[in-house]
Amino acid sequence: PTPPRPCEAYRAEWQLCRSARHLLHHYYVHGERPACEQWRRDLASCRAWEQRRSDEAQQSLCESERARVQAAQKYTLVWALRQSPPADWHLPLPQEKDE
User: Fold this and answer.
1) Cα angle vertex 6, ends 12, 44, to 5°?
2) Is the terminal CB of the chain with fewer CB neighbours within 10 Å at N or C?
3) In terms of pTM, does the model score above 0.85?
4) What angle do CA 59, 61, 62 make, to 5 degrees?
5) What is the pLDDT of residues 14-68, one digit of tens each?
6) CA–CA separation, 89 vs 95, rounded Å?
7) pLDDT category, 77, cuts 50, 70, 90?
8) In this structure, what DSSP letter does residue 47 have?
């Protein structure tokens, strides 16, 4: 078996996380420094998996990917999606009626 992503992808994510631009953006949005350690551990696990076929590295990397997917799925949509447009979508807007 191969890693879920190429090791180059983990290296790119780790480098992006450590970049000055990402640091400033993350600090502005979240008020704290980004946690890049997980990307470094994932990169090390990926390399160990590819080079030594390490079972520990494989398990660690798969758990990390599962956690990443679950974290992305736990956020709900902000807006409720509509199934059809509103009934009065074609009528002029209120500010257009005054003119």
Assistant:
1) 70
2) C
3) no
4) 65
5) 999 999 999 999 999 999 999 999 999 999 999 999 999 889 999 999 999 999 8
6) 15
7) confident
8) H
